Amino acid sequence: MQLNKLWIAAAAGIGIACASAQAQELFAYPPQGRPQTQQQQDQFECHQWAVEQTHFDPVQYAAQGASGQGTPASAAMPSSQAAGQNTRQGAMLASGAAQGAAVAHVSGGNPGEGAAAGAVLRALQGRMGTTRAAEDQRQREAQAARQAQLQQAQTQQAQQQELQARRKAYQQARATCFKARGYTVSQG
After folding, report:
1. What is the rounded distance in angstroms from the CA atom of residue 162 to the CA atom of residue 164?
2. 54: which of 66, 110, 164, 169 fits an S-S bond (Cβ 3.0–4.6 Å)?
3. How many angstroms separate the CA atoms of 138 and 75, rounded?
4. What DSSP assignment string belongs to 45-96?
């Protein structure tokens, strides 16, 4: 009698888990005169047999739940990279100042004013280049993000198709087991 209670509890658990895993697409009508305890035992044994045949257990799949997503990477610039950028900007300004002073000296102008004008001009050129480079970088990042989203969607679709195929194989194996035990089976 204790064994029958165990079979009933296990069969009830399988029925609930299968329903939650959307695997309850199989309808099996028992042969006439089959007692309820035998039906529950058949349900449990056919589930086990289908899992062995297909290597897919909708009960375990439902228990696993959704997996967590990774966290996005930080976009902060490393300090060594920022220091290098500051060094490049300083060198650009010095180069512009030297060039402006040389042009002013050759043309008879004030070398100090020429140096200031050259530094300002170089700074503007650097800022324009930085703006273009930043826009190009944003476009590359946006393209990479779109590509990653597309790839993720394709991966999810492939996983869903594989899951559906595994569920279908499980249901077919389960139906085969029920038919072998004399049940009338239909799949919805």
Report:
1. 5
2. 169
3. 12
4. HHHHHHHHHHS--HHHHHHH-PPPPPPPPP-PPPHHHHHHHHHHHHHHHHHH
